[in-house]
Known about the structure:
This protein folds into two domains: 9-57, RecR Domain 1 (Helicase, Ruva Protein, domain 3, Orthogonal Bundle), CATH 1.10.8.420; 67-205, Dna Topoisomerase Vi A Subunit, Chain: A, domain 2 (3-Layer(aba) Sandwich). The protein has eight helices and seven strands. The chain is α/β, with parallel strands linked by helices. The protein has a five-stranded mixed sheet. A two-stranded antiparallel ribbon has the order 1-2. The longest helix has 17 residues, at 41-57.
Amino acid sequence: MNIEKYPSKLLETAVNEFTKLPGIGRKSALRLVLHLLRQDAEAVNFFGNSIIQLRNEIKHCKVCHNISDTEICNICGNHARNQSVICVVENIRDVMSVENTQQYNGLYHVLGGIISPMDGIGPAELEIESLVKRVEEGTIVEIILALSTTMEGDTTNFYIFRKLKDFPVKITTLARGVSVGDELEYTDEITLGRSLTNRIPYESSLGK
């Protein structure tokens, strides 16, 4: 086995930390660390402090669980948006994907994942009960299930449908312009926008 030799323990430690990031191998980590070393101290300090500040000060919206600088995120706090429609997504990246389509003007609900028994993630680990409570308030007229079209996403959709089906709320899902097996964040904006605009009643998607 070829073990890399580093001229500095500090360099090696920094490289090791960068390799903990997703998709970053040792060569990429070394390239990033050496790039930082070429920057002036002020720029590197700003970079490091921005990460520390993010970790220590970031909040999650009390309503939709999206990340936010405040207790209530800018989307939930924007009364110009349609307050009667909720788009249910898996994670924060999916909120960004839907927003980038510019085809949606309602609210969101971030589950924080999808049901995946293989990964030890059940309904209790997700923000499903808080979604039910939002519907119970009686101001929501439509729930859009915008989860990935994977087996886990479909399972989560069905679970949520069963929890909400007795409420007087329309439950819809994305039109299948999003291919089966696709994750929302990797779907192009035009396709996602059309799938959102042409959404269908959830019950119509069952068995297909």
